[in-house]
Amino acid sequence: MTEGVMRANEGERASHGGPDDATTDIDGAVALVCEPAFRADAAGQLARALGGDGERSVLGILYRHDVRAWTTALRTQRDRIGSAAAVAVGPVAEPGRTRDRLPVREVPDPTDLTGVGIAVGEWLRARDDDERPVVCLDSLSTLLQYADLERAFRFLHALVAQLRSAGATAYVSVDPGAHDEATLATLRTLFDAVVAGERTTAGTDEESAGADGRPVATDGGNPDSGGAASGRE
C-alpha cells in the first residue's frame, strides 16, 4: 500500500462521513454514491445527476451499463440535457457498433485508467464557460475488478482534481456490499460528499422516450461512427 493510501486511512485527509450524513444537493461537488448494484440502474443514476435546475452537459463513464442503456436513459431526460457523451470502458465499449447519435469514446481495455482519464479531460476542456458539466461514473466497484485499490486510488485522486478544476459536478457509484469497510473508508477520503443512493422511478423503456423517439442533443461527433467523447477538436 502506498504512502498516499496509508495517509488516507490514518485520517490525514478528512472523511466526509457515511451516507446518512450526506445531502443530495451537491452542485459543483464530487460525490461518492453508495448504492447496491441491483439498484444502480442507468435511468436512476442520470435522474440523480440532473436533480438541480437548468440544463446540464452530461458525461457517462460506463463500466457497467452499456451505451444502449445510457442512451435510453438520456432520452427520458432530454429536456434537461444540453449535450451528452459517454466514455465506454471494457466489455461495454463494443468497438465498431453504430451509436444513436451519441459521441462515444471507447476504451476497450478496462485496465487502461490513463485512457479513461484522458477521455474525461478532453471532454471537460471542450466545455464552454456557460455550460454546467456533470459526470457520472456508473460503477467504481466494476473498476475495482480491473485495478487494485492502490492504483484505483491514484486514478481517482487525479480524476477528482480534474473535475474540481473544471467546476464539474460528479457522482461516482459504488456498491458498499462489494467492499470491506477499510476500502470504503479509503475511498471516502477522496470525495466532497457521500450520499446514499435512492431508487428512482425514471422510465427505462423506449416508450418513455416520447412518441417521436427523438434523441437528446449531443455535442458533436459523427452519428454513424460515434466520434470522440469530447465532441470537438
From TrEMBL:
Name used for this protein in its record: KaiC-like domain-containing protein
Coiled-coil ranges (or none): none
Disordered: region residues: 1-23, 200-233
Any matching Pfam family: DUF7504
Bias type Basic and acidic residues, positions: 9-19
Transmembrane segments: none
